[in-house]
Every structure is written in structure tokens, then in C-alpha cells.
């Protein structure tokens, strides 16, 4: 590994920019994301920034059970993020459908739509856990362990 | 002759150009973000944050939007970066000033305008509605903030009877200098797109403004150009106050000190204000900017 690629992968760990998408969430998870960037938890300490455009992001935060209407949108947003990228599924909803499971209007699993790298348990998860997940995802980006990086490697 | 070329290249690429300008710009950007965070009761980013952001963006894959020519997509940030590098190379900082001639102020102003023009073009070229809204606002703001900016510089040039930047640094400090610095500072807020005038890149409001479609390497180049712009514009105000000092190292210390002071002031204003509407910003510049312009001309011609 040359000095440059080492510098770049280290920088990936230190500057995770986040884009969030609400895929039919009850808003509980989304409300827990905002405190991550408030004075109490301050995600900027670990270099995290909330980005408005998926093209600037490294990490996609998905909340909600992926309703049928948002399925294509989530896929589209995932493709708009330039690789390397990581996906974090927030809360129980994208993992199992949670309280919405059995509903005919949801997919119920984020895994079925985009490759998920990390799950954060909880309904909703606490901001500390969300920040920890962002940091873990950044570490995965550094080591090249996310799905997007592995697929690029094999494919 | 050879020697001059070497010195010119040195001032373009190393001091005060690309290398030192970028490092200094990153330092100023970090100070801006850190002091903003502290004022909001947060911890703020670590010291190397702008540096890491830049390298991470370099390492990302670039997605070119459908229907946009790659040549335009890549060339815009490169032009923006190089024009600001040349502008910085002209700036007569201590130990710099290899490129200096009568009329370099005109070239300097032209080069400083380039990033704003490129931003407007980039917004329209990337075919995103958000970017186009950003471009329109930037174009309007350009008309607005250039009133105090240009009148400040022209008044100073009239007073010193020269269009050479290096004379500006050696001129003694007077009331006219202070008022010019004030006029430039008013314009600086909009040029750096910081809070009351963060209208073109209004995050949350029009997603990410002009650079919404930019990503990867071209975005990194835009960010680098922005860092250089910060150091050039803060440096431009700082050099006005170097007249009375002769020792180059003391000049350097004061240069850095004034630049940092300006950025801290910018952060305080940014933390204390909310974003204006574009018409209000326009009115602000055409009233207060006009007053500043008249004052500047009066001070520099009469005093
Ligand atoms: S996990 Fe709980 S809080 Fe989060 S979206 Fe689902 S139901 Fe709402």
C-alpha cells in the first residue's frame, strides 16, 4: 500500500459524512438522529457531518421498514452515493419490520433492497448507539470491509 | 531571468501559493468550524478535519450526472482552483511578491472573481434544480457584494495612486485603511458564503446548493479552492495592516494573527445570525455597502 492510499483510507475513518433516508419510519428513529449532531452528542467530534445530498455522503442511514413506495427510492439513493459507501439500518424496523411486520405495504427488510453493513438495535436506538454505529461504519470503510468495497474487489 | 521564473513558480506552488495557501486555508477553516462549535456549546471537529475531508473526497469514485459532459464537469473545479492559486501568488505576503507589476491589482480582482463565476456556471451545468437556484442566488449576490469590495480596493488605489498590490502593504496605516478593511470585511462575509449570507449554498434549504451534484475528486478540488479563497481573502485584509512593520518575521506573525482574527469574527457573526433572504442581503449590501463605499472614497481622498 502506497502512502497515498493509506492516507486516503485513514481519512475515510476520520470523516464519515452521513445521509439519512426515511423509508416509512414512524419518525422515532429520525428524531434520534438529530441529537447526534446537537451540542450534547456532537457528531462533529468524530468528523461526522450530516449531508443534504447523497452524492456527498459516505454512510447511508436507513430508518423504517422500507415501504413498497420507498423501495425504489432507497435503491436509487444507494446508487447515487459514490463508493466506497456503508449502509446502516437504524432500529428494529429495517431488520424485521418490527411493529409493521405482516403489513402488505412493506418490504420489511432493508437487506432485500440494499446491502446492509450494520444494524443498530432498538426501537428507537439511542443517539450514543447511532454515533457508535457511524464510527464503526467509518472503521469498516477504512479497512475495506463494507459490502460496496468487497463487491468492487471481487467483481 | 531564470531566477525570476523559479521565484514565480515558487510563489505559485509553494509560498504563498498552492501548498502553504491550502495548509493555511485549512487552518482557518478549522478555526472557523471549531469556534462556531464552541459558540454553540459543542466540542467541534479535530484539528486535521479539513485535511481528512479533502483526502477522503479524493479517494471516492466520481459519478458524473447523466447529460453532463465530463470535460465540463472536471474542468470547472480545475479552473476555479488555478485562478485562486494565481490570485494568492500575486498577494504580497512577507517573503512573497515575486510576481508584482503595475496593474496587478486588476489581475488580482479578475482572478478573485473567477471562483464565483465558475460556481454559477457549475450550478447551471450540472442540471440540478437546487444547483440552479443556488447559481441564481450567487449571481445576485455577486452584484451585491462587489459594491463594497471593489470600491474599497479602488479607493485605496486612488489614494496611493497605483494599481500595484505591493504598494498597498507598504502604505502607512490610516483611517482610510481601517475603513477599507471594513468594506472588504463586509464583502468577505458573502464571498465566503458564511451565515447571514450563506444564501447560495444554503444547506438544508436547497439541499447543498451549487455543488449538489459534485462528488469525489471534483468536489475535493472545489473544497480546496474554497480553502484557498479563505486564505486569500483573509490575507488581502491582513496585508493592509503590514505597512508600519519592517521585520519580515514580525510581518508574518501579524499577517497570520490578523487572518485568524478575521476568521474568528466571521464565526462569531455566523453563529449569531440566521440566513437572510436574498432580497434582504441585496438590500443590506446596497445600503451598508454603499455607505461603506462613500466613506471609503471620502476617507481616502480627503484624509
Ligand atoms: S424502529 Fe421503532 S422507532 Fe424506529 S422507525 Fe421502527 S417503530 Fe419507529
Report what the structure shows.
The complex is a heterodimer of chains A (155) and B (303). With 155 residues, chain A is an alpha/beta fold. Chain A has six helices and five strands, in the order H-E-H-E-E-H-E-H-E-H-H. Chain B has 303 residues and is mostly helical. Chain B has one domain (3-302). Chain B is built from eleven helices and no strands. Chain B starts with a helix and ends with a helix. The model of chain B has no long low-confidence stretch (mean pLDDT 86). The interface between A and B is medium-sized, with 25 and 34 residues. The structure holds iron/sulfur cluster. The site of iron/sulfur cluster has 13 residues of chain A, from helix 2.
Key words describing this protein structure:
heterodimer; A: 155 residues; alpha/beta; Rossmann fold; B: 303 residues; mainly alpha
Secondary-structure blueprint of this entry?
The complex is a heterodimer of chains A (155) and B (303).
Chain A: H1 3-14, E1 17-22, H2 28-33, E2 49-50, E3 59-63, H3 68-80, E4 86-90, H4 93-96, E5 118-120, H5 127-143, H6 147-154
Parallel strand pairs in A: 1-2, 1-3, 3-4, 4-5
Helix pairs in contact in A: 1-5
Chain B: H1 2-13, H2 18-39, H3 49-58, H4 70-90, H5 104-125, H6 129-160, H7 165-170, H8 175-191, H9 216-239, H10 248-272, H11 278-302
Helix pairs in contact in B: 1-4, 2-9, 2-10, 3-9, 4-5, 4-9, 5-6, 6-8, 6-11, 8-9, 8-11, 9-10
Bound molecules: iron/sulfur cluster (SF4).
Iron/sulfur cluster binds next to helix 2 of chain A.
Amino acid at each position: 500500500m502506497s502512502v497515498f492510499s493509506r492516507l486516503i483510507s485513514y481519512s475515510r475513518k476520520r470523516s464519515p459524512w452521513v445521509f439519512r433516508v426515511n423509508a416509512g419510519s414512524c419518525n422515532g428513529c429520525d428524531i434520534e438522529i438529530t441529537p447526534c449532531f446537537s451540542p450534547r452528542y456532537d457528531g462533529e467530534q468524530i468528523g461526522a457531518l450530516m449531508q443534504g445530498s447523497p452524492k456527498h455522503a459516505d454512510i447511508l442511514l436507513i430508518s423504517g421498514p422500507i415501504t413498497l413506495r420507498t423501495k425504489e427510492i432507497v435503491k436509487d439513493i444507494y446508487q447515487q452515493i459514490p463508493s466506497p459507501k456503508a449502509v446502516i439500518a437504524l432500529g428494529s424496523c429495517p431488520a424485521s419490520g418490527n411493529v409493521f411486520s405482516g403489513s402488505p405495504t412493506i418490504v420489511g427488510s432493508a437487506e432485500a433492497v440494499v446491502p446492509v453493513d450494520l444494524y443498530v438495535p432498538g426501537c428507537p436506538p439511542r443517539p450514543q448507539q447511532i454515533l457508535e454505529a457511524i464510527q464503526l461504519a467509518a472503521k469498516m470503510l477504512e479497512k475495506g470491509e463494507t459490502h460496496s468495497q468487497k463487491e468492487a474487489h471481487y467483481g | 531571468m531564470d531566477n525570476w521564473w523559479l521565484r514565480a513558480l515558487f510563489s505559485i506552488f509553494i509560498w504563498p501559493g498552492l501548498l502553504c495557501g491550502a495548509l493555511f486555508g485549512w487552518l482557518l477553516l478549522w478555526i472557523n468550524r471549531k469556534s462556531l462549535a464552541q459558540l454553540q456549546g459543542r466540542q467541534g471537529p479535530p484539528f486535521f478535519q479539513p485535511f481528512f475531508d479533502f483526502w477522503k473526497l479524493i479517494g471516492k469514485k466520481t459519478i458524473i450526472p447523466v447529460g453532463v459532459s465530463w470535460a465540463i464537469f472536471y474542468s470547472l473545479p480545475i479552473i476555479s482552483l488555478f485562478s485562486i492559486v494565481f490570485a494568492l501568488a500575486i498577494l504580497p505576503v512577507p517573503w512573497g511578491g515575486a510576481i508584482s507589476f503595475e496593474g496587478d491589482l486588476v489581475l488580482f480582482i479578475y482572478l478573485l472573481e473567477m471562483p464565483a463565476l465558475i460556481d454559477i456556471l457549475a450550478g447551471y451545468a450540472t442540471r440540478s434544480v437546487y444547483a440552479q437556484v443556488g447559481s441564481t442566488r450567487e449571481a445576485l449576490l455577486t452584484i451585491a457584494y462587489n459594491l463594497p469590495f471593489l470600491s474599497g480596493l479602488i479607493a485605496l488605489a486612488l489614494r496611493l495612486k497605483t494599481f500595484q498590490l505591493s504598494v498597498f502593504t507598504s502604505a502607512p496605516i490610516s483611517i482610510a485603511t481601517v475603513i477599507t478593511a471594513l468594506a472588504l470585511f463586509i464583502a468577505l462575509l458573502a464571498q465566503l458564503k458564511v451565515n447571514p449570507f450563506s444564501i447560495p449554498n444554503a444547506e438544508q434549504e436547497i439541499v447543498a446548493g451549487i455543488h449538489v451534484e459534485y462528488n469525489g475528486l471534483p468536489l475535493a478540488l472545489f473544497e480546496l479552492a474554497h480553502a484557498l479563497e479563505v486564505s486569500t481573502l483573509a490575507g488581502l485584509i491582513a496585508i493592509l495592516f503590514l505597512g508600519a512593520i519592517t521585520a519580515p518575521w514580525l510581518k508574518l506573525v501579524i499577517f497570520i494573527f490578523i487572518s485568524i482574527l478575521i476568521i474568528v469574527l466571521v464565526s462569531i457573526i455566523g453563529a449569531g445570525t440566521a440566513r437572510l433572504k436574498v432580497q434582504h442581503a441585496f438590500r443590506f449590501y446596497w445600503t451598508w455597502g454603499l455607505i461603506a463605499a462613500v466613506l471609503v472614497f471620502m476617507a481616502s481622498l480627503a484624509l
